[in-house]
Design a protein that fits this description.
This protein has one domain: Thrombin, subunit H (Beta Barrel), CATH 2.40.10.120. Strand 8 and strand 9 form a beta hairpin. The chain contains two helices and 15 strands. By secondary structure, it is mainly β.
Length: 243
Amino acid sequence: MIEPVLLTATRILTFDGQRALTNASGFFFERDQRLFLVTSRHVLIDKASRHFPDRIEIELHIDRANVAAASGFSIPLYRDGGSLWRQGHDAAGDVDVAVIEVERAALPLATVYRAFTPAHLLAPQHQVEVGASLLVVGFPLGFHDTLHHMPVVRHAVIASSFGLRFQGLGYFLTDARTHRGTSGAPVVMRVAQDEAALGDLPWMLLGVHSARLDVNSRDQQVDEALGLNCAWYADILLALTGP
């Protein structure tokens, strides 16, 4: 039996034509019968590092009876000169989250996946305490179960006041050991199994992991890295997946 939360995540490979570029993480989000792939915006375009892929490829499970059966699924990033993804921004500037719609009709008929929905987003009246336990579900350095095509999880805790925009930006901090390739991974918190609206996926989607956070003044010969990370608030998905 496979825990459903593992089936929400997928490994992303970026390409420029046939040239492989990077590994990253992503996950599925469903709203109004539409299916979206969510990842970090810098996975799809990053001017600072001159990262300009023209397509991505994700791994899909294609046989319910054989978890080792998987297939690559290519998604173009541009059409007729325009980008096909939506990226987030708010009053403070760009939000490092992007979504691209997945054409359900093009998926293999036996595709096996799970998707978060708006019901998995935290309601305004709910509170999350600093230090609360989280999981980051992704593919650090591209590492994963290569036989069963499954992600790995890293344990994390909330490291800043949840609900406050850290330094005025649209993210909160997590304390976790992360690596390149985790960008775009879902940051989730377990909830009570009796949450009827969540079914057999009893996890709240709190954020989208973006990057490690460091301080410019750190002496790299003396001081260890902070071990802190940026996770953009997941409620941005409501804006990005709307009409």
